[in-house]
Design brief:
The structure is a homodimer of 218-residue chains. Chain A is of the alpha+beta class. Helix content of chain A is 41%, strand content 17%. Chain A binds a DNA duplex (30 and 30 nucleotides) through helix 3.
DNA sequence: ATTATTTTTTAGGTTTGCCTAAATTAAAAA
DNA sequence: TTTTTAATTTAGGCAAACCTAAAAAATAAT
């Protein structure tokens, strides 16, 4: 019943690549994000398929079964609860937590997750603003928009950012955090970079590559 | 530089078997406590020896090198800090923590250990009364005695108990915890069991098998 | 001091998860 | 539609950590 760490990581990766698009994820995409080779991925897909955790047709990519998605969501739950713990209790910076949470998410203990959740008072979002799935794996999704899709001169509030240490360090440096108020002053039509007003105070130019990792609400 | 979980467990086991006796531990003893077979142990000993973590002569048992002891002590440190966390913060009972701590002790992150220690306010003893090694692996040892070595009609205070869930549940049931006051009323000369007075209130008969897992101070 | 018993080691296998190189299939280009 | 390119899978290997069975060494018993 208990999966290996490697299998858990595959499930998590497949979930991440299929939730937004609803499309099957390819062997190569999995290999790239996991830092393994395509051949290794194929091999693992066969095992996960035999366990009915994924739907896999040769050469056609993969999606999760309900059972696989459920398992993946509970790993995400653990990851995000631990991230919250690291920041709120142990005073980690948000760019320091990823690596540690990647380890902690694989600790197997239902009672631990329950009590950690209780101790943290049932948090709903992790330090990057990502929603924490509940005990059953259910996730409440909110309507947010990528910053690079917001029209000029609209004000919005930062709701979440991608979990990438480099990005997080950069955002801290320019003063963007969850809850920051952003106004897109203008979009450069050549490179799609944005001129932002942050919290009504500072103007900063950010690339569209950064902007697409920032999700906001009007 | 980073060892596998399996290697860490071997180091820990070797430490546990060599600290009190100062004698080399045998292949079979290691196999028994780890739940593996002697052949597997021999194989691993060769690897640990090649890494200069243990001193190993064929057929002659094993001891740790300074480097190996240092590593083992830092794993113990993590184990005991996590145990303290589980009991003090997450409200685990002391008989529930072992299995989880066995997993948590293998999380690799120096910064995590430092900040956990800070968060817990630098605790000196884990929930069973075992001393927590400091950041350098140093452990302060206190003079304690096994309860079965205490003379009749002497009063003493419980300082530590062995980390075995069954034992811990039993001790809870009869009302013994760290700090309890015990008086050995009499020792049965046939089976060496002890009649105890606990906290000046309850009388309980305890086998010597239990008593040797309870360490006390006068 | 031999012999018998127990302990430890060696030899040869298994599983998991990774790899490279070659073969196959699918997709894109001519 | 055929050819070329790209993606994927298969085949065959490797390291880690376990195993069983057989051989060797150490210890205990006669």
């Amino acid at each position: 019943m208990t999966n290996t760490i490697s299998k858990e990581n595959y499930l998590k990766t497949i979930l991440q690549h299929t939730t937004d698009t609803n499309e099957p994820v390819t062997t190569n995409d999995i290999a790239n994000t996991m830092g393994t080779k395509a051949a290794s991925v194929t091999e693992m897909l066969k095992k996960l398929s035999a366990q009915k955790l994924i739907k896999y047709k040769k050469y056609k990519g993969v999606t999760l079964t309900n059972s696989g998605r459920q398992q993946a969501l509970l790993i995400i739950r653990k990851h995000r609860l631990w991230e919250y713990f690291l920041v709120e209790k142990l005073k980690f910076r948000w760019d320091e937590i990823h690596e540690v949470a990647e380890q902690l998410e694989h600790i197997q203990s239902d009672i631990l997750v329950d009590r950690l959740n209780l101790f943290l008072e049932n948090p709903q979002f992790d330090p990057h603003g990502a929603p924490i799935p509940n005990k059953k794996g259910a996730i409440k999704k909110s309507e947010t928009f990528k910053l690079n899709e917001v029209r000029d001169n609209k004000e919005s509030i930062v709701k979440s950012v991608s979990d990438q240490p480099d990005l997080l360090r950069y955002l801290s440096k320019i003063g963007i955090s969850i809850g920051s108020k952003l106004k897109v002053i203008e979009q450069n039509s050549f490179d799609q970079s944005l001129l932002l007003l942050i919290n009504n105070k500072v103007k900063v130019q950010v690339s569209s590559d950064i902007a697409k990792h920032i999700r906001v609400q009007p």
